[in-house]
Amino acid sequence: MLKDKSHILKAKNLLAAGDNDSLRYCALELRTCIELMCYDRLSMYIDEIPKEFLKKWRPQDVVNILLECDPYSDKDCTVSFAKELSGGATGPRQMFGSSKGISKKFIQSHYHKLAHYLHAPTLADIKAGEIRPLADVKIDLQATLNEIEILAQGTMLANFGEFVTFTCQICQLPNKRNKAGLSEGKKVKCINPNCPAEFTIHDLEEKISQIKPVRAGWSCLKCQTNHFILPKEVIVGKRLCCSKCKVEWKIGYSLKSVEGIENNEAKK
Ligand SMILES: [Zn+2]
Ligand SMILES: [Zn+2]
After folding, report:
1. What's the average pLDDT block by block, 10 residues per block, for the chain (268 residues)?
2. Residue 197 C-alpha to ligand 1 middle, in angstroms?
3. What's the gap between Cα 268 and its chain centre?
4. d(CA 80, CA 87)
5. Phi-psi region for residue 56, left (φ > 0), alpha (ψ -120 to 50) or beta?
6. Which sign does the torsion angle of CA 141, 147, 149, 152 carry?
7. Closest-CA residue to 72 (of 162, 150, 1, 205)
8. What are the two backbone dihedrals, phi and then psi, of residue 3, each rounded to the nearest 5 degrees?
9. CA of 217 to the centre of ligand 2 (A)
10. Nearest bound ligand to CA 196?
11. Ligand 2 center to residue 221 CA distance, Å?
């Protein structure tokens, strides 16, 4: 599905004109179509993705994020419904709609190629005589346009799945995730862009509360109290304050001999 199909029409007209400049503008319109199709799909996943990801504009980033949320997001899908009759039988099916998934392969083979046609040939291209004839460029653009028209055909944007929700223990914001995109040991980020929490998935089938923030431990060198810090907060120069003895510490670099570390590990 593509909500705004005006760019397909513009691309068609420019392709029909067929001169050098028109084909360059046609490539731009086709790239716009691909970007808009990606953003249309991304809008269905707003509740599941960290808000900072909404700034990602490159189609390959968007496709990766969608796959992260839902491993089936690049697949086509058709939805129909039917009345359940007695004895478990179903009545006549009625079509609800269909959606087309955008794959990484599509982006790789079409979006990047279009970029090539936006730019003037380099001096090296001219010297090597590697300037594509307009007829060949036209064939390439037509092939991409055909693919875009197929992807734009879908009649609905869908995000189906079994979802789990959990509250971030750091910022208290509810997080929502599609179960199909979660697996044992996988790390997911909190949806709040201002929250540094990262979670590891454990025993998903057993208990959702097993989604725990990833934390690292440190102990105060003065009073030996143990504290936790999020991996993102481990920055050289950052100050940490011991909540018990109130001594302030600063994170820095240190150099240790590998021999010493290995001997200590061997003793454990
Ligand atoms: Zn959070
Ligand atoms: Zn202390």
Report:
1. 90 96 96 94 87 82 87 88 86 86 93 89 85 91 96 84 82 85 82 79 60 72 85 83 92 77 61
2. 5
3. 41
4. 20
5. beta
6. negative
7. 162
8. -65, -45
9. 14
10. 1
11. 7
**Residue in the block written with tokens 């390959």:** 60
Q: Where are the beta strands (DSSP E) in 161-225?
A: 163-167, 174-178, 187-189, 198-200, 212-213, 216-219
Ligand minimally distant from the alpha carbon of residue 225:
2
- Matching residue, tokens 């929502």: 176
Which ligand is closest to the CA of 245, given by its number? Answer: 2
Q: The tokens of 8 are what? A: 């397909």
Place of tokens 């086709």: 30
Ligand nearest to the CA of 218: 2
Size of the chain, expressed as the number of residues it contains: 268
Global confidence as pTM: 0.72
Cα of 247 vs centre of ligand 2, distance in Å, is 6
- What are the phi and psi torsion angles at 71 (to 5°)? -60, -15
